[in-house]
Amino acid sequence: MSTDSQLSSTDHEHRGRLPFDPIDEAAKRWDQRYPETARMHAVTSLMRVHQLVLTELDELLRPLNLTFARYEVLVLLSFTRHGSLPMGKIGERLQVHATSVTSLVKRLVDAGLIERSPHPEDGRTVLAGITARGRSVLEEATEVITGAQFALSTMTTEQCVELSRMLRGPRSAAGDF
Predict the structure, then answer these.
(1) pLDDT tens per residue across span 79-102
(2) Shortest CA distance to 128 belongs to which of 75, 170, 173?
(3) Architecture of the domain spanning 65-146
């Protein structure tokens, strides 16, 4: 194995890129031992694209002190009539565990992008509400995200629509909606 100092400039520029598709190679080997190769290939591809897209979106949002998960909370709050929701509803709508919501909200509160307040009618419930600063950062972040085409710039609008349609069945079957 060569070290960084031994790599040519061409090798160095392409470091990290394989000369073959590892998912295709895994599928060939999988097919020799197990059934459902097409589904294994699809799931592995889907998970890899998820990693790639999330990494790119997080990198784009880093200068705004956001992650895509925190961005989603801001978007959700901005879509509500009053700009706030009970913490439990945030988890329900974003389909994440309450512990994750607590962590996301804490970071957003610390950044001054949302604030917590008691629910006016239910003393046991805490509301998370977007602040004016949060709305401003949300607008800036949305420009960044949409400018990067949600990290799916290699896909046409029609392909994105078709992908969403194709994924609707598995989501529904899993009880997503």
Answers:
(1) 999 999 999 999 999 999 999 999
(2) 75
(3) Orthogonal Bundle (1.10)
